[in-house]
Amino acid sequence: MTTPPAPAIPPASAPHTGPAARTGPETRAGGGRSGTRRRSELASFLRSRRERITPQDVGLPPGPRRRTPGLRREEVAQLAGVGITWYTWLEQGRPINASVQVLDAIARTLRLDAAEHQHPYRLADVGAPAGARTGEADDADADGMAGQDVRAILDSLDPLPAALVNARSDVLAWNQGYAALLPAVVGAPAERRNSLWVAFSTPRCCNPLRNIEEQAAEHVAILRYRYSQHLGEPGWQDFILRLCAASPFFARQWATHDVAPTRPCDKVFSYPGSGEIATRTTSLDLATRPGVRMLVYVPVDERSRARLGWLREHPEAAAPRHRH
């Protein structure tokens, strides 16, 4: 099997110009389709979080039989100290203004964790309090030039597998260690050269990522965390729709609306002849390329390190045994 050569890092595209100007004191234009999608995403997110909180969780009596799980809208509004009509409109995705104070009150009522707490700020297009908002900058130029220095760093990390990826996990450049570990990714057509696509769309019998079912919820939550910063962008929308269609498993995870910030992940790979290769991934953001990061896979023990070396010497072991 021939390993595709590590690509040169392509030139940058034009940067994203940002949201459209807002209009009106009580409603906002929301940037056209992008604003509508943000409001729809916010509505779905709030509903999903409301449905997981029971009355007992917030000190309310169970009451009569409920037709839907979780709290009622009027209960959230009461606990957060906002009007029921206003909160209903927010859950319906209407273009109403939401202040930081109100979003904070709703977040506390719905018991959002740190990553979830930031999510409504981005979706409502309001500024969070200082120090409360973190995440990645726009990566519209994620296919741009990272420079010869980044290419040199990638190569110098070899034999540790390393790749340059954007917020959507499109793989932009890689070293030989990465090509040995994930030949299905580097050998894929450009439109499917994405680590999440390979992880979720590859049948179990041929999937080298052995712990995908245990790690899926975390991977998808991190993806949604980044997705909220790119609502309305056709490339993102198309990717999510295609992956949901290709993987019902991914679609079920996506429907949870869980969000989580980027963090190290444990990934276990296995190929015929090599045995299991346990790794820990680390993301290193590029200061000169907002939204682009270097992803490095570090073997967690000497056995995995030795097996990774063996796999580099026997690339044929990573070839699928059959076709679907």
TrEMBL record:
Domain HTH cro/C1-type residues, every copy: 45-117
A family per Pfam: HTH_31
Annotated region described as Disordered, given as residue ranges: 1-71
Molecular-function GO term, any one: DNA binding
SMART domains hit by this protein: HTH_XRE
Organism domain of life: Bacteria
Ranges of biased composition (kind: Pro residues): 1-13
Name under which the protein is recorded: Helix-turn-helix domain protein
Source organism (scientific name): Frankia canadensis
Taxonomic classification: Bacteria, Bacillati, Actinomycetota, Actinomycetes, Frankiales
